[in-house]
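Issue: ligand-bound run for zinc ion - logging full I/O for the record.

Environment: standard queue, default settings, no custom constraints.

Inputs:
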Amino acid sequence: MLRDDYGNQENLSPLRSMEHSFRAYVKRRRAEEGRRMSGNGLPDYAFAADYEYRKKLDAIPHFYSVAKKICATYASRTLQEVNLAGLLVGPDQYPEVYQMGCDCARILGIGIPNIYIVNDQTLNAYTIGTDDIEPLIVIHSGLYERVTPGELRCVIGHECGHIHNQHGVYNMLKQLMVAAGTSAAGLVSAQLMRLMTKGAEFLLNAWSRAAEVTCDRAGMICCERVEDAYSVNAKLLYGAAIGDRSSVNLEALKKQLEMQKETLVRLEELMMDHPASVRRIMAEMEFAECEIFYRWRPELREAGQTARSREETDERCRRYVDVVRGRK
Ligand SMILES: [Zn+2]
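Outputs:
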């Protein structure tokens, strides 16, 4: 395990002295089952479509076991590459980022993840991990440079959401598909694409878009201000030049979404693994009015403020993120 290489960090922080190996995390998770979990074994904030699409993927014969094998091979190599080329945050380097990871992990009730910053100018962050491999979070320098501390906390909370919701194997599978053509992942991806039917690929993308909604909710649960969750997604739209002092208007974004309602271009989203950022923001705004959100964030509920049920919230979110059904 990578963490063994850094075993001497255990005494540097009270949080580091906590037992946070992946095995301990699984044990603790089992002990916490029932607390803030819904009947399907996922956290109560998880978007219903996340579970539904996952069940459909699970139902494809041998799909999960083959995916797990492919991902295990790729994940262990990627972990080593990230450790070779990236910077591991900790109490002594980038302690503020390390602390955000500790905070988000504590809020969601997961083990403290290793977080790396890597030299890459694309606005991206992702999580690597499978059922058997301790997860780690990778943040691209391009994203790190362009977000505020509050927005970065949302990003880290989002990535912790992937861990909390056990997205590991399918999440890695999706990353491999996206990585097709890059040198490191090219061979594995090419083999993978030959194995995947078009139907399975569509399904994996549909699941991935739903899983992103789940994790945006995790980001909102971990953030300090929900506006940061909206603005960081907005930055994915326009790239967020460094030093940019302008701001995004949510009403204007809504109108923009309306403009593409009946166009064919929207169907391109069927092959996308993330919902369009505008849709993500709309789904976040729905969750901000959900009773589950206030269960996690009671301090944000104003006196007398009503909230929608999870079922109604999920239904409203589907209108934004379900590419085909939502446009009827
Ligand atoms: Zn994500």
